[in-house]
Amino acid sequence: MSLNEDYRSDHSHILGITPIEVVCPTTADEVKACLEKAKENRWDVVVRGAGTGMTGGAVPISKALVISMEKLNAILDIDIPNRVAVVQPGVITGYLQAEVEKQGLFYPPDPASLVICTLGGNVAENAGGPRALKYGVTRDYVLGLKGFWVDGTPFSLGGKQHKNVAGYDLISLLVGSEGTLGIITEITLKLIPLPLHSCDIQAVFKTMAEALHTLANLYTHGIFPSAAEFMDRSCLEAASLYLNKPLDTQDYRLLCQVDGFSEEDVHIQAERLLSYCKKNGALEVEIAKTPAEKSKLWEVRRCLSLALKANSLNKTSHDVVVPPASIGHFLSMLTSWSNESVQLLGYGHLGDGNIHVNILNVGLDKAEWEKIEPLLSQNVLELAVNMGGSITGEHGIGLTKKPYLHLMADSRVMELYRSIKAVFDPENRLNPGKIIN
Amino acid sequence: MSLNEDYRSDHSHILGITPIEVVCPTTADEVKACLEKAKENRWDVVVRGAGTGMTGGAVPISKALVISMEKLNAILDIDIPNRVAVVQPGVITGYLQAEVEKQGLFYPPDPASLVICTLGGNVAENAGGPRALKYGVTRDYVLGLKGFWVDGTPFSLGGKQHKNVAGYDLISLLVGSEGTLGIITEITLKLIPLPLHSCDIQAVFKTMAEALHTLANLYTHGIFPSAAEFMDRSCLEAASLYLNKPLDTQDYRLLCQVDGFSEEDVHIQAERLLSYCKKNGALEVEIAKTPAEKSKLWEVRRCLSLALKANSLNKTSHDVVVPPASIGHFLSMLTSWSNESVQLLGYGHLGDGNIHVNILNVGLDKAEWEKIEPLLSQNVLELAVNMGGSITGEHGIGLTKKPYLHLMADSRVMELYRSIKAVFDPENRLNPGKIIN
Question: Inter-chain contact B324–A81, Cβ cutoff 8 Å?
């Protein structure tokens, strides 16, 4: 029974209630059997993938049967003429990507956890990643879903058809529903042609405004970066400490990727990007073409989460979204709320305004932190929403963002959410207490 | 009152019931007032754009107040740093496209009616077009919606944020809901960088299989066409007659577009495409770079709808979808059902398998046609669904496809549709009788 303990949490590190039973089905029929057993016993049902969720979506908070999809992990079909992959929910995202890339095809969504997270989890959370800027998020790639409604009745929505406007879009409703509406056992994903070439460019600016202005210029002058990440000086300071190497920490870094179907195309885009960066005041530019060069360029960006954790007593993360043009103002507000005990900073996806905000305890005792952290979190999320943004761009609502959902959804919309949930799951047994109460 | 007669129909040519009242609001407040008046009087409410819908979605079939969005037609904002356009629903699709292209930005969805149809209608039907192959459909570009629920309560969902996973995806649910769930008065659309260059290529093949094989090869070898249309020999015969010029009607035509951010890139893609076409047996290839050359190349494809109508006594159109690899088999089935009195043929979007099927009466009297046409329609739609496709890829369900929705949605899904409708519109007063009963 100690096994069951392992399924009480996820990457939110919230410790839920030990499951009544943990099942790792190997067939869809076994999933159906689980649901029927749960129905008979009036148990709740919580489905999980790799447990990499950041908001507690996979944490059981009632006496529940946990269905872990880890063994339902086959790529059923990579169908080249139809440009789709058909997968079971337990397939690791990065594994599918590697397999389709061998065939010259591309599945773009690239959450940070892609080497361990599962496609079922990606669907449940509507995962994104840096490439979302150019290529969209998981929802943009889901053509078909098979699975079971809460009572064990099977469903099959969409499939290998690339267009479909028949009836209300239940697929989009299920994507991002965090296991609260139905259980997914098979996913049909759209694949696109693999860009064969790419190149990474880092530009260092004196001000965030210059970096933002550069990016806005790119879009209107024939460049579509496949990623545009940023780090400000407070992030660079943390990285410098963590990596134990000097970094020019007085500046803002913009890290872009351009990709395309020919070396010539990537070269032209990269040259344009470099020239815009310089024209807009870049102090320094660096270009990376080989895997080793690219890896070096991304070292700072990649270490940030760990660096910030290492340099603080406690860390709370939010993945807010603001309209891209408001990023500068948003970050300056975070700075204004910082002091010698608490530091607020942000980094992430400059292109689509999806900012990973960190609230760091650098000097408070436990009691003080526990008092002040919720207030600061509330401030951060309210600020994003007041700027026309969102309380979450990638991580979902789960448990941790539930107290803030009302910032984005008025009472009528909350009521609609509850009614939709009741339509799919009238007894409230599918991952109860997630997204809404 | 004769004005009201004009609002009884749309491009489906179904003649509905004369509206109780037709209102052309110029502000969102007037829309709200309409809804309150309708509520008071227990009238149904039917919203319409330009009335270019093909399935009767805008046809009032009960005593209803009709809200025509023709005067709510302002582009409120083209926000370059945030890469969005904010528009009222009555804005003509092609007009927005021209305006954003002046700024170097791009709104891709391109339904055939784009010079007259409205963005509100596009949202209601989730419109597509040839460019959907590379760029997706309307739903992929809707970041925010404002409007009113049936009782006049305002809503605001999403906005200028490019990512958002907070709560169930009500935006995707409203897109394609054909005015049955809520009334939209403001739309925020994602814009992307405008591809500055493009080139069209036509290849003539002996067999559909060769054309399909070519296309499947392209995707895995670094070419992403922005359109891939096909016409088979029966279409070419009709076009030859209509245009009164000889066409090589023994063959299959593939008409592709490639686009990109540099001339060099487009040139490389075009050369690759040409070489794949030749390698796969193309009898003839033609390349068009100037607007005049492009226009000549598209002449045959563009005239098809009118040509088929001109060459027949009656014409029924369906826009089915099949998995792309099944197109050849699907078309051969249509041919096998044709005879000297009734001709079935298809053309359209080869890339995404969205086929415009035409059932043509070329020799039956009215009574015979009215007997046989529904049977053939049923066969065509059943065949598409049995192949793993859809009964509609672009035109929606409206009235004309409603009898066939059950082919795609089992009784449980139909029940979910009805329950969702009831959640949003408990008195069934928003465009009643559309999509579902």
Answer: yes
